[in-house]
Design brief:
The chain has a domain at about 50-125: Sporulation related repeat (Alpha-Beta Plaits). The chain contains 4 helices and 4 strands. The chain is elongated, with a radius of gyration of 30 Å. The chain has helices at about 1-20, 30-45, 60-75, 100-110; strands at about 50-60, 80-85, 90-95, 120-125. The longest helix is centred in the N-terminal third of the chain and has 19 residues, at about 1-20.
Length: about 130
C-alpha cells in the first residue's frame, strides 16, 4: 500500500508541475506550414463557387442572344447576365444562385416573360459584401 500511495503522490506532483507551465511549444515541419499557407492563398484567390444559373438562350445566333440579354437587363437591372460561347452555341445565363431554391424562385418570375428556361449548375461569382 505504501508503494501505491507513493506512486500516486509522485504522479500528482508531476501533473501539478506540468499544469503550472503556461507555455506550449509546438514543433512542426516547415513543409507542412508551406502547404497550409499555399492552401490559404488558393482559397483567397478563388472567386467562384458551385451554384446555379438560369439559362435563357442557347443557339448559334449571336445577335439573338445579345438582343435577349438587353431585354433581360431592361426587365431586371439588378440581375447579372452572362453571355457565354461554347462552340458552336451562344448561351445566355443569368443570376448567381447558391441554392436550387433561390434559382427556382427566380425561374418562376422569369417564366412569365421568357419561354426557353433551364436551371443549370454552374460556377457562380462570390456575393459582393
Amino acid at each position: 500500500m505504501k508503494a501505491g500511495g507513493f506512486l500516486l503522490i509522485l504522479l500528482l506532483s508531476i501533473s501539478i508541475k506540468m499544469n503550472a507551465q503556461n507555455a506550449v511549444k509546438i514543433i512542426s515541419d516547415p513543409f507542412l506550414d508551406s502547404l497550409v499557407n499555399r492552401n490559404i492563398e488558393a482559397n483567397r484567390s478563388q472567386q467562384t463557387l458551385p451554384g446555379y444559373r438560369i439559362q435563357l438562350f442557347s443557339g448559334s445566333e449571336r445577335n439573338n442572344a445579345i438582343a435577349l440579354r438587353q431585354k433581360f437587363k431592361t426587365d431586371f437591372p439588378n440581375e447579372t447576365a452572362y453571355l457565354i460561347y461554347q462552340q458552336p452555341y451562344f448561351k445566355l445565363r443569368v443570376g448567381d444562385y447558391r441554392s436550387l431554391i433561390e434559382a427556382q424562385q427566380m425561374f418562376l418570375q422569369l417564366q412569365k416573360n421568357y419561354k426557353q428556361l433551364l436551371i443549370v449548375p454552374d460556377k457562380i461569382n462570390l456575393p459582393k459584401l
